[in-house]
């Protein structure tokens, strides 16, 4: 890096906003992908991470080749807008440097927009407003991917005046929530007044403006935050059961470098779990980390980046020490470690143990974090709770929930607990439904029949499990959205009562 200019890492940018404001579609427009079109029920149910390299961003803006972009790229975190996913939203925001709040221009500020503003204030994060769906203004003349000022000039007087009053309404609503905002092209107090960028995720107007603000203007106001640092800062985004890779831990690497073979500590509900990074995977640039597509394998990954960590020990590496005469006990311990990983708590730190570091001390730090994660959830939860599980509360009588990731599990449980639904949870698991799960859930057949159910989200139900459930009278419900899953259950209960 030349002169005394500090090396900057990619800013991490969280996309927040109410359901259907167009968060995912806006990202699709930037990436040239169609993630939104393939989402079940058209809703985002999983937090996502996409790396946008500076060159790709340049292609989408009017920046000349010689104009420098100070950051190597942008790591964008997509969040769900639905109410039950509030934990994913706050988790996404807690690891971000900046945010984009997407507002539907035809609707103005909505419930989860206001919730997002509250979060932004708590975390003291700077943000930009994308005032999306301008193409919905009556009579809008499409100007594909044009800068917004240019596109606005081309509109009829009617469109211009509709735009103006809708914009004024949104500015007033922000004011009511304690934020001064202004369209960015008229904003000469950019540090104090929040920028609004009108956009269309459908035809791309304003998208170059949004990208320019993110890579040219924002890094200037948060330069210190973005100074690259070797000290590793890494947060667990999600834990997944992958059909080929086993348990994988998706992380956001905020600072530093992760390497294959690094010894890492993961915070789990059962305590710190120490393991070795076997493989580091990232999606291809401009592609989603959560998409079940092709991954790139890396020996090392530098911040900021969304990374899938494969921690499963291959069969061979378990068999080899055995042949060398290591006790069975050692092998047993290894299995416990691997199983423990699935209880990794999303939102906690991944700690890297460097050669020469004190492992005990590192584990103590992890333990402290676990205690904190648990105590903050304790404060929020009341009722007849008997057991604390990865920030998920369970009861003696209730249904059994199974999901592909911790985040969706939390969302299902949040929805079950909401006042309109109010269904207790007996136990939960991640990954495919096996016979064991059916056996556990079957405990309710004797206690309370209406709870003799497994809600299975985005996971396979093994044939033996289905067979056992059918035999014993346990119902397994599957659906592709959290809301449908719970609706089917409530319909089932009505059926039982009638
Ligand atoms: P959740 O993730 O479920 O909270 O929604 P979201 O904010 O990601 O919104 P999404 O991208 O799913 O878009 C919702 C709907 O609005 C989809 O049908 C999109 O095609 C549509 N949409 C999004 N942006 C625009 C836009 O700029 N113009 C128009 N006309 N439609 C849009
Ligand atoms: Mg979405
Ligand atoms: Na949506």
Automatic annotation (TrEMBL):
Keyword rRNA-binding listed? The answer is: no
UniProt keyword annotations, A-Z: GTP-binding, Initiation factor, Nucleotide-binding, Protein biosynthesis
A single GO CC term for this protein reads: mitochondrion
Span of domain Tr-type G: 8-225
Q: Which GO-annotated molecular functions does the record name?
A: GTP binding; GTPase activity; translation initiation factor activity
To which protein family does this belong? Belongs to the TRAFAC class translation factor GTPase superfamily. Classic translation factor GTPase family. IF-2 subfamily.
Q: What is this protein called?
A: Eukaryotic translation initiation factor 5B
Source species: Aegilops tauschii subsp. strangulata
Q: Which residues of the full protein are shown?
A: 146 to 643 of 774
